[in-house]
Structures are given as structure tokens and as C-alpha cells.
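WARN retry 2 of 3 for item q-0093 after timeout on previous attempt; input resubmitted unchanged.
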Amino acid sequence: QVQLVESGGGLVQAGGSLRLSCAASGRTFVTYAMGWFRQAPGKEREFVAAISRSGGDTYYADSMKGRFTISRDNAKNTVYLQMNSLKPEDTAVYYCAAKTTLLNFRSVDSMDYWGKGTLVTVSS
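OK item q-0093 returned
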């Protein structure tokens, strides 16, 4: 069992930055690929970014490339999402997710564990 707790959300002006963190419980963190999804009001949950177990491979949704950076610290059981040049359309609840493999990681239905989310609001 893995528990994921997100933090770092908040209110930021357009063009600003935020760094989200996701702390994982247990000693098995290194065995999971990790990622972030988001869900805006009235919309479906969508893939944001993913990172391999070692941190050597990262993947992004096209709209986040160049603005968002995912990273992980296996010694701290934590995954991060650095978000720069934020836009009002980035407003959403951001969820951390874990899966034993990166295979098909963009699929919402294939995750093994989810956090409860952290709200990011970008004002114009």
C-alpha cells in the first residue's frame, strides 16, 4: 500500500511559478513510476507528466513541455512538479499518481495509487 500526499498548491498570477510536491509513504517508492495529472472544473482528468523509477526518463503532455518539469528524490520519497509560466488554463486540482510501470502511464484508469490532490489557481 502506498499513500500519496500532495502539497504546494495555491493562488498565483499568470506568468508565475509554483512547485508541487508529493510525499509517498513506505519503503517501496523507488519501485514505482510516478506522475502528475490534473482536473479542471467540468473537465476530465488529464495526464501532465511522468517520471521513471530512477528519474532518468521523463514524459510530458504537449501543452506542458517547456513549462513544467517533473523530478523525484528517491531518498526523500518525494516527486515534484515545477510549474513555470503559468496560465489561467492551468487552473485545476493536481493529483499525484503511482504505478509500477511507465507503460501506458498517460491512461487515468491504469494508475495503482492516487493522492487526494492539491488545488492550483492561476489568476489573469
